[in-house]
Amino acid sequence: MNNPTPIDLPDGFPAVRAHILDHVWRDEFTVSEIPAPHRIAPDAMALDATVCEGDRTLGQGRLIILHDPEAPEAWQGTTRLVTVARAEVDLEMATDPLLSGVARSWLTDALDNLKAPYTCLAGTATSVVSRSFGGLDDKPQESRIELRASWTPLVDDATQLDAHLAAWQDLLCHICGLPPADPGVVMLRRHRRWEADA
User: Fold this and answer.
1) Where are the domains of the chain?
2) Which of 85, 108, 113 is nearest to 177 (CA)?
3) Residue 191 CA to chain centroid, in angstroms?
4) Do the beta carbons of residue 176 and residue 56 sit within 8 Å?
């Protein structure tokens, strides 16, 4: 793709939303559409994902797709993707001082590997270690990582958002300790995992 520009389709946001609702996710993912914030942009859509392996929940994530035809200056485009991804991790990882940089690379590597061009990336990586006391002494120690990030996709049409959705999926896989999907493997439509279609 030469000189991609921020998405601005003739059909507007409905075309983007319809395409996203048709996306196919990994078997470990259950994705549902949830109410989206509408104070940030005129058009918005939000997805909630739970990542499971068997009966065990590995992590969760949310992706908000914002669209503003006025192209806010901070976005440098008309569309903005915002995500939060979190998962339980072992104590050693949660206390690693290099974690923030590593977590950021999970997202940038996923975007780069899937050839999903972007601009204006921003975010934070947070690790939390919880130790109970008093009447909660018997509660096990918890440690988790949370990544919050946003970026502007540089695409020519709605179909090219697929690479950004796949990158978000790979980000969640990294945080949850799953191997990213092989780019050469085609997801079959019968594996579509939507908890509820709006």
Assistant:
1) 13-191
2) 85
3) 19
4) no
Q: Name residue, tokens 């797709």.
A: 65
Strands 118-130 and 79-88: unpaired
Percentages of the chain per state (helix, strand, coil), in multiples of 5: 25, 35, 40
Tokens coding 13: 């946001």
Token pair 């507007």 is found at: 12
**37, 185 Cβ separation under 8 angstroms:** no
**Main-chain phi, psi angles of 20, to 5 degrees:** -65, -40
Max intra-chain CA distance, the chain: 61
> For residue 34, what are its two tokens?
């949830």
User: Can you read off the two tokens belonging to residue 162?
Assistant: 């697929």
Tokens of 175: 């945080």
**Residue-level pLDDT, tens digit, the chain, 198 residues:** 444 445 554 456 887 888 888 899 999 999 999 999 888 899 999 999 999 998 999 999 999 999 888 889 999 988 999 999 988 876 566 566 666 677 788 899 999 999 999 999 999 888 776 666 665 566 666 677 889 999 999 987 788 899 999 999 999 998 888 887 665 444 333 333 445 444
